[in-house]
Design a protein that fits this description.
The chain is α/β, with parallel strands linked by helices. The chain folds into 2 domains: 10-180, Rossmann fold, CATH 3.40.50.300; 190-262. It is 51% helix and 13% strand. It has helices at residues 27-41, 58-69, 82-92, 102-112, 128-141, 151-158, 167-173, 190-205, 212-222, 226-242, 250-262, and strands spanning 10-14, 20-24, 47-52, 72-75, 117-121, 144-149, 177-180. It has a 5-stranded parallel beta sheet, with helices on both faces. Strand 5 (117-121), helix 5 (128-141) and strand 6 form a beta-alpha-beta unit. Helix 8 crosses helix 9 (212-222), helix 9 (212-222) crosses helix 10 and helix 9 (212-222) runs parallel beside helix 11 (250-262). The longest helix is centred in the C-terminal third of the chain and has 17 residues, at 226-242. It is elongated and about 65 Å long. 34% of the residues are buried. The structure holds adenosine-5'-triphosphate and magnesium ion (MG).
């Protein structure tokens, strides 16, 4: 979606060769940028973590940080192994050797990753042994590593079976933790109402939709979640197209919202 609202600051971020998106500078993104920069500049403990519920913008943040800070973004699959991760890290830096062993990959990374920022998305798929090797790469080889994941990642650190095994990694991450949350509308606070309008509604439906009741109804269905908001926008557009309407109304949001809830 192209953002044409001059009130929002955005950065154009290339997701792949087909998709480029205008990433909105949210408060959480600003915090993530500061945390990552500080972590990179630190002489030790160059490890950070970003967690949050699905659809709160973690993946977008990983692309944004990679663009801004010249980092390398890697996404972990459900079946990823320790060797698979090492191989992905090495390949992302143009390591070409085929059939390298874990030791060879580790040795190559030891020599080549000093000063490199890695943004590891879906890190909740990594087991404790694989997470531990990331600590080693940050501690001994000069890389900065920021992990992204859902609550499951937080749980791996708190789980009584893995807590002790990950104590070294946990202590290095320390306070360098950011939690992405949906935008909550609090009574008497207009700021979050404004955010829902500025981030989600006005860029698509224009300033005519600047109506607190409309924004509240929109929020009721998307709950301030980026992914749900994107779905709701598409559903509202579809209802408007079918009903030949040009203006967003309460009724359209209700119809679009109910459709999403039913599906
Ligand atoms: N700052 C932002 N600017 C513009 N669009 C955003 C922003 N954050 C999120 N989005 C939109 O919301 C969608 C969901 O965000 P994203 O995929 O980053 O969520 P996530 O937290 O990684 O979810 P999951 O845990 O399911 O992987 C994105 O595809 C994007 O369209
Ligand atoms: Mg994601």
């Amino acid at each position: 979606m192209v953002n044409q609202n001059p009130a929002i600051e955005t950065t154009e971020v290339k997701i792949n060769h087909r998709v480029t998106i205008n990433v909105v500078h949210t408060d959480e993104l600003a915090k993530a940028l500061i945390m990552t920069k500080t972590t990179m500049e630190s002489p030790f403990n160059r490890l950070g973590i970003i967690t949050g519920a699905p659809g709160t913008g973690k993946t977008i943040a990983s692309y944004y940080l990679a663009t801004k800070l010249n980092g390398i973004r890697i996404c972990c699959s459900e079946t990823i192994t320790k060797k698979g991760l090492l191989s992905r890290l090495a390949k992302s830096m143009d390591h070409r050797a085929k059939r390298a062993t874990i030791d060879e990959l580790t040795e190559w990374l030891e020599l080549n990753i000093d000063g490199q920022l890695f943004l590891i998305d879906e890190a909740n798929h990594l087991n404790w042994k694989t997470l531990e090797i990331l600590r080693y790469l940050a501690d001994e080889c000069g890389a900065t590593i920021v992990l992204f994941g859902t609550q499951i990642l937080t749980e791996i650190f708190q789980n009584r079976n893995t807590k002790v095994l990950l104590a070294q990694l946990s202590s290095r991450i320390g306070a360098k933790t950011i939690v992405f949350t949906p935008i909550a509308i609090k009574k008497g606070k207009n700021n979050s109402l404004k955010k829902v309008g500025v981030y989600f509604i006005y860029p698509t439906f224009g300033d005519a939709a600047k109506n607190p009741d409309l924004i509240k109804t929109f929020h009721r269905y998307c709950e301030g979640n980026w992914r749900l908001a994107q779905e709701l926008i598409v559903a509202c557009q579809e209802v408007m197209r079918l009903q030949n309407q040009t203006e967003l109304t309460q009724e359209i949001i209700h119809q679009a919202g109910s459709y999403i809830q039913e599906n």
